[in-house]
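Schema walkthrough. Field components (list of strings):
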Amino acid sequence: MRDRPGAGFLAFIVHRGTGIVLALFILPHLYILYFLGDPARYEAIRRFCSRPLARLSEAGLLGLVLAHGLNGIRIMLLEAGAPSRIQKTLFRAAVIAGLLLFFAGARLMMR
Amino acid sequence: MVSKKFKIKRFDPEKDIPGGKPRWEEFTVEMDPFERLLDGLVRIKEAQDGSLTFRLSCAHGMCGSCAMKINGKNALACQTLAKNTPEAVVLEPLPVFPVIKDLVVDMDPFFEKIGAVMPWLVADGPHPERERSQSPEELGKIMDAIKCIMCGCCTSSCPVYRADRDYLGPAALVKAARFILDSRDATWKERLKAVSGENGFWMCHSIYNCYEVCPRSIDITGYIAWLKRLAVKKMFFPPKGQR
Amino acid sequence: MKNKNPRQKKLAAGWFLGRASGLLLVLLLAVHFTVIHFERGGQEKIPGRSAGFHGAVFLRLSHPLWWVFYAVFLSAALYHGFYGLRGIAAEYIRRERLLASIRAGLLAASIALWAAGMLILVNSQLLLANPPALCYKCHARGSIPSCRAIRFFGFGAINKK
Ligand code: FES
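Field assembly_structure (string):
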């Protein structure tokens, strides 16, 4: 029988996964910015990035950032001295805030 | 009386290959709802299978011998009432630690880590005529941490310890915090040094598994966070002089 | 008294910087997403008005505050990301030598990425100082109407005249 994933464990797994993806994302991001010196190519890339599928993955990026960032705030609060007994409450708060911000943000992106 | 089914993960070093396919055995015991799972285990050993092996000593949640994985969560068998468990109880040895036989695991790696944080009082000054007394406030600071019975539930539930056995683990870190906070202790510096290395509390990711499983309800993760804050404080404001 | 265990201090400082950069990134990402991703949506249809638009990027970079913003963003993101990867590597990789080389590789990669990012930023200033046709569409720096978000954050008005 496996460990029952508690809120803290789930948060940890998600935090680690999103963290790795986001850290690796820096590379392609900088690669695109590299073309700022070449307006024509930069605009071509940007036009590609405004296609629906790319837009959708952009919303996914927002999701990654929100998951990682909000749980990061939770961890920092707890490490800064917030009592351990509220860790699950903080997790729930982060999930709710994350969902709200995600849908609000995705709506703005998909306009 | 209720009838309880015990599903026990067994390992016999003379018959089974270590790391091989786990062998599960089922036993049915009649139990009073207010009996503890440990009573059930004792009854199985007495009446059904004398070879069933597990540790027990105090049977009152004070010695930490009977820690095991009960229905997927580390706990003490002598603290878990039959009425608080489902009809079928799944018992496994503590995870991560090497299994010796059935529910008995090798706790040496665990106590090695505890030993590495100087789990003894280093008192200062001349020997007092009577005891080294503490005020109730001073005692209050360590009251939670001294409840630890070193059962190993926390460390063996920690995903970081599972991934890296060099990590000191929650139990050892709480032990260190307990002595750093002790008003009678005179050597916080070496203590902090012992736990703030590569394998110390920086590896803790505040996963709260330890906090969730602790049979004595110690705020383990809170103590580890306190150690992190202490180390950062000492980095910014290094203490003047010797101590 | 001299600090007897610099190793300990280094670990504490590294951890603290990891947390501090994380907190900073929350704020910087909020601004970044507002400017680049959220504001863009409605303006995509009008060419030349999006914040990710080539000209708009340069418009922002022409303001020293935005330039510093991106330099800090780059540094914080790289430190935070690679501090995390380093910790993960230490957790899962048991072989001492392999771990050491992976750590060295991560350090080298982060420095290289930082240098590349700074190069882009410095390059942008060179282009701005010597503007040919900044953008193949509008061909002029001042002609890009700044988007609402840029105005909201108060930067970028510099080139409006
Ligand atoms: S037997 Fe002592 S704690 Fe359970």
